[in-house]
From TrEMBL:
This is 3-carboxymuconate cyclase. Pfam families: Lactonase. Belongs to the cycloisomerase 2 family. The keyword tRNA-binding does not apply. PANTHER family: 6-PHOSPHOGLUCONOLACTONASE, 6-PHOSPHOGLUCONOLACTONASE-RELATED. PROSITE patterns: PROKAR_LIPOPROTEIN. It comes from Flavilitoribacter nigricans (strain ATCC 23147 / DSM 23189 / NBRC 102662 / NCIMB 1420 / SS-2) (Lewinella nigricans). One of its GO terms (cellular component) is cytosol. Keywords: Carbohydrate metabolism, Glucose metabolism. One of its GO terms (biological process) is glucose metabolic process.
């Protein structure tokens, strides 16, 4: 009996240790899945050193500095590859002795800590790159000063491989101060199609393209012309890719278009102001994003120093104004909504601070969390959860 009891006791002992270890592994996996990182691109002014990486503690609403990555000056726009393994920055500074073109930097993202390690650098093949989009195969770049777009190939290892093609835009608009020439301001693929779209602030036009093996050519969709002097800057699509929302920088409007890629047609639906009717001061809009569920649209106002919040009509696709949210700083150049739709972060470029808002997912309205991140000249934000 004693031997049998001893054996049972030993079995219970080892079973307890196994369960304890299994529980520990489960806890480690859960905590690892909850890790989140914020990546901040900056202009190289007021002491900025490049790209800043922060760990986010969601439960306590706390950001902790993890890394500062130096490289070419003004990594002013960045994007993360769809698989979350690589980060790319569009830099105003060129490589080496190249003082004309900008550059692109590729970084690997550590799967455990989220820190960045440099992979390679490449010319952007244009002047003043201001926007970059990574789709896993290509990098799409728009150049504000040079008025051109570039498409670069990316290898499986994340490194920038070679130039596919560049396209130079020409023309101007009625605003002599801002539209004296073509100014490509943003570029991204059209969901569920083989095409991508480029917004030209200087010519009031958005043009569709497609990428071949070694060339970029116009896509079989007509270019979209905004109203004269609107200055299309950034844009976003509805989740199904059917609706296009355009931030018109120079007139502080949002315009909405329907895209039918199968029929090769586009249709204007609506134009709505981002400002109060009685606001008469200088303002330019900057960034534009839909909530993850597609129910609310947000646009940043530089001058009014606010976010304009719109509801998307579920039946008629019409935008209706809901509210203006003060951003508690100046020049909200870029902002983002976290993937869960819980938070919205605003990068106030001129006041060197990022503001964290809590987002009501039912109403779309925002509440100041009181959390601030001090960063010199923050101009673009990206998020990774792992």
């Amino acid at each position: 009996m004693t031997n049998k009891a001893d054996t049972m006791l030993r079995n219970y002992h080892w079973m307890f240790i196994f369960l304890l270890l299994a529980g520990g592994c489960s806890e480690t996996t859960e905590s690892r899945s909850e890790q989140e990182r914020l990546y901040v691109g900056t202009f190289s002014v007021r002491g900025s050193k490049g790209v800043y990486v922060y760990a986010f503690d969601r439960e306590n609403r706390r950001f902790s500095p993890q890394q500062t990555v130096t490289g070419p000056d003004s990594p002013s726009f960045l994007d993360i590859s769809p698989d979350g393994k690589f980060l790319y920055t569009a830099n105003r500074q060129g490589i080496g002795s190249d003082t004309i073109s900008g550059s692109v930097s590729a970084y690997g993202i550590d799967p455990d800590l989220g820190q960045l390690s440099p992979l390679n650098e490449f010319s952007s093949f244009g002047i003043s790159p201001c926007h970059i989009y990574a789709d896993g195969r290509y990098l799409y770049l728009s150049h504000y000063a040079g008025g051109s777009i570039s498409v670069l190939s990316v290898g499986e290892d994340g490194q920038i491989d070679h130039l596919i093609d560049t396209v130079q835009h020409h023309g101007n608009g009625p605003n002599a101060a801002r539209q004296e020439a073509a100014h490509l301001h943003s570029i991204q693929p059209v969901p569920h199609t083989p095409y991508f779209l480029a917004a030209d602030l200087g010519t009031d036009q958005l043009t569709f393209y497609e990428v071949g093996s070694d060339t970029v050519t116009p896509a079989p969709l007509p270019a979209i012309r905004t109203e004269a002097g609107a200055g299309p800057r950034h844009f976003t699509f509805s989740p199904d890719g059917r609706l296009l929302y355009v931030a018109e920088e120079l007139t502080s409007n949002v315009s909405v278009y329907e895209i039918d890629a199968d029929r090769q047609q586009t249709r204007f639906l609506q134009r709505i102001s981002t400002l109060p009717e009685d606001f008469r001061e200088q303002n330019t809009v900057a960034d534009i994003h839909l909530s993850p569920d597609g129910r609310f649209l947000y646009v940043s106002n530089r001058g009014h120093e606010s976010l304009a919040i719109f509801a998307v009509g579920p039946e008629d696709d019409q935008l209706s104004f809901k509210a203006h949210q003060e951003v508690f700083g100046k020049t909200p150049r870029n902002f983002m909504i976290d993937p869960r739709g819980t938070f919205l972060l605003v990068a106030n470029e001129a006041t060197d601070e990022i503001v964290l808002f809590e987002r009501d997912q039912e109403t779309g309205l925002l509440r100041d969390s009181g959390v601030r991140i001090a960063v010199p000249s923050p101009v673009t934000l990206a998020w990774k959860a792992f």
